[in-house]
Specification:
single chain, 358 residues, alpha+beta, Phosphorylase Kinase, domain 1, Transferase(Phosphotransferase), domain 1, 2 domains, six-stranded mixed β-sheet, 14 helices, 8 strands, disordered C terminus, binds adenosine-5'-triphosphate, binds magnesium ion
Length: 358
């Protein structure tokens, strides 16, 4: 057994024993990357073993380098990668087992029909997910773009702590691989519109997918649901119309036993709408999303307050930085926009907010 700096290497035999021969009963589910099994290790730990599909072309060294890069990444809201197995043509990833299901199940599956899913739990999940994305986008070098943020990739612990799974997988498997191309395309309903036109995905695409996820948490609706009337099939389009027409109080999930106050609901809606801005450059950074979700104020008021503070430095939005110190040109370490860009965008936000003020 080889110990790595961050985790360990598992033998195929060991994982075979842990999952009872990868039997059907141990199978948790199947996604675009492979099949996931629940396993029990001799030390008493419970793990999720992901047997990656189509691994034969993956160069051994490259696989190890990438897995080790992902394995070193630690955050309370990311599923921990414990180690991996690379034997003959098999490539498996071993994760900590997260025991309270995934968000897809809580919103649309069996749990949604049988158990309460309160507003506070939903917002805790949204905040945890936003914090993990902030970490992946803003604290790591090179940054990690998830590329497949969606409800089934958000796992949930008993206290509603969210854990993002499958981060780094798109990179690990290499985007030139055909089976990955479908994964890189993300999941229908969550993909940012610029991907369709440019074929390029960056962290701003994750922000878009997060916005869709937040809308899903608020409304309990699927991102795309053909069983609904034509104007309601696409969740993003429907919600924007509802908010613009001042019907935001009608959009909360009817299954919520206790409805959020109009103000709290409005705040979540405004954050979600900003995240799905069709112009990727106008979407907030994930660090900003965390601040907006944590703040008591409504997001557009925050923007307004910031603008008032900035305007003390000058009259035009282009002159609001302190005159003695030039504005930095790159993103600041705390993830906030640089001053010049922040100012330009602010004007646009303000116009936008007018439309969505409720
Ligand atoms: N660490 C884990 N702990 C518990 N369950 C897990 C874990 N990782 C994955 N699962 C579960 O295994 C199932 C299959 O996951 P998988 O990631 O293969 O598919 P997916 O999330 O539906 O799609 P995608 O391939 O886009 O990620 C899901 O139900 C998921 O909740
Ligand atoms: Mg997954």
């Amino acid at each position: 057994m080889v110990q790595l700096g961050w985790g360990r290497w598992y033998s195929l035999k060991e994982l075979d024993l842990a999952t009872n021969g990868f039997c059907e009963d141990s199978k948790i589910g199947e996604g675009g990357y492979g099949v996931v099994f629940k396993g029990f290790l001799p030390d008493g730990s419970v793990v999720a073993v992901k047997n990656l599909l189509n691994n034969t072309g993956q160069a051994e060294k490259e696989f190890r380098v990438e897995v080790e890069a992902i394995g070193k990444v630690r955050h309370k809201n990311l599923v921990r990668l414990l180690g991996y197995c690379a034997e003959s043509c098999y490539r498996m990833l071993v994760y900590e087992y997260v025991d309270n299901g995934n968000l897809e199940d809580w919103l649309h599956g069996f749990s949604s029909q049988t158990q309460a899913f309160p507003w506070e739990a939903r917002m805790k999940i949204a905040l945890g997910t936003a914090k993990a994305l902030t970490y992946l986008h803003e604290a790591l070098e090179p940054k990690v773009v998830h590329r497949d943020i969606k409800a089934s990739n958000i796992l949930v612990e008993g206290d509603w702590n969210a854990k993002i799974s499958d981060f780094g997988l798109a990179k690990l498997l290499g985007s030139e691989k055909s089976h990955v191309t479908t994964r890189v395309m993300g999941t229908f309903g969550y993909v940012a519109p610029e991907y369709a036109s440019t074929g390029l995905l960056n962290e701003r695409s994750d922000v878009y997918s997060f916005g869709v996820l937040l809308m899903e948490l608020i409304t309990g609706r699927d991102p795309v649901d053909y069983s609904r009337p034509p104007g309601e099939v696409n969740l993003v389009d429907w919600l924007k119309v509802m908010v613009a027409n001042r019907h935001s109080e009608d959009v909360a999930d009817p299954r919520l036993h206790v409805k959020p106050t109009p103000r709290i609901l409005k705040k979540a809606l405004l954050v979600a709408i900003r995240c799905v801005d069709p112009d990727s450059l106008r979407r907030p950074k994930m660090g900003h999303v965390v601040h907006m979700l944590e703040a008591d104020e409504l997001p557009y008021r925050q923007e307004k307050a910031q603008s008032e503070k900035r305007s003390t430095f000058g009259n035009s939005p282009h002159h609001h930085q302190a005159p003695t110190k030039p504005a930095p040109l790159s993103r600041r370490a705390d993830g906030k926009e640089n001053e010049v860009n922040g100012g330009d965008k602010h004007a646009i936000y303000k116009q936008n907010w007018k439309k969505y003020e409720v």
